[in-house]
Amino acid sequence: MKFATTRLALLALPLTLGLAACGKKDDAGGPAAQSAAALPTVAPPAGKAWSDVVSKNADGGYVMGNPDAPIKLIEFGSLTCPHCAEFEEKGFPKLRDTYVNSGRVSLEFRNFVRDPFDTTMAMLTHCGSPESFFALTQQVYANQKDIFAKLQPAAKEIQAMNLPPAQMFGVMADKGGLIDFFGARGIARDQAMACLANSKTAEALASDTQTAGDKYTISGTPTFIVNGKNVDVATWEQLEPILQRAGAR
Question: How far apart are CA 110 and CA 179, in angstroms?
């Protein structure tokens, strides 16, 4: 699928929660590469685990863990993708606790937005501090089905309004229950509405998605990049051996 996301082209997409460009890859990333030597663990800053160390970078990604980790993992994920939610449930806890906290692997998450609902939720996960980003993202994935159940009935009503972006995201979040959802998780209503009124954030998400799609040949989500290479896998069962062969063992 070609991701035509220049500027706010994503806003022209239908307000639906389809599965386009969201799916599992059938292969396991091609032939197994030769294993690198096992890497030593790296101690975190005093009083912290590496998973407590989070920063936002110039590419729009949020990086968890040792910024100098020898294995750099990037996950491109969509908040409206069920397969991304499945990875979050099955893979993220072990990825964080065993691999990121070892100091050998850093995890960078970049939103790969596919539709206006996705963009709205991504804007809200960016609304707090960098330290809150992964927790908010994890909460969206954990409650994805319930969120969909509230968002989908509001889709036709919102689309019929034909609102400008500065208003549309706020209305979408309000009618779809997202303001209350994020409010219960530390993002106050006024704060959320201010974030959603900032069309530059939506433009950046769309532009970053286009750039990443072209650079890494991303055809669906989740997509994983290990030390600059698209490893062409989409499940934890496929990804973990790749991290181990890279020395995280």
Answer: 22
